[in-house]
Target: R-opsin
Amino acid sequence: MAAWIHPHWHKYTQPDPMLNYIIGVYMALVGVVGVTGNLIVIILFTTSVNLRSVANTLIVNLAVSDLAFTLLMGFPIKTLAAFNQFWGWGKRACELYGFAGGFLGFASLTTLAFIALDRYLAVIHPLQSQPRLQSGSRVSKFLLMIWLWALTWSIPPFFGYGSYRLEGFHTSCTFDYLSTDVPNVLFNAGMYIFAFLMPLGMLAFCYYGIVHKLQGNKRSLRNFSSQRAMDRLRASKLDDLFAFAFKLAHFLIHSGKAISEVLDS
Model:
């Protein structure tokens, strides 16, 4: 096991066993809630014809990636490792576990970015964009781009660019963010910029544009003193606010793992 643990962690003692037990219980609870919630979303949106749209297809895609993430990264694997106080499935399983975390995490974040783009185009260019965006081929292209982009930034460690290693708690595995060799540094820099910052920037740009557009509409409607139109605008803004909160919650869930890694280091 020592060969695939970064030397950085050798100078630290193992954490208090009680902390791992707490993490194990937490992951089990989150796993049950996550699996149940995402299954409900998948069943609801795939069985109702009225809910089939680009935005809802992307939401289903997000639920699928989150469901897989929860099952593979949390309960039961992470829970069992935390209760056992160590990773007990070997180096190859560690690499596959790290790959699954990166692949599914990037897929979820990229899906959030495409959902934001869909909302942005619907608000900013409703007449020009919607006929094309609602086509089945366009949805398929969106999904293909999402999963290929996630694969692009999670598979290089298997070819010598970066690596997957055991984390400081010795109960889970992720990208090697500590080694300073050139291939590893270049890979981590590219991954951080293109797989993390770029989707995050896309989210910020799209929702800023939506809020700015709605504020402009609000000022225009005031000039016409249309109470009914104002009510519709408020409903639209509330809908976008709920959508943003939903996507932000998913983003924070996946960011929590990365933040914990930084704190460990």
Remarks:
- The longest helix spans residues 182-224.
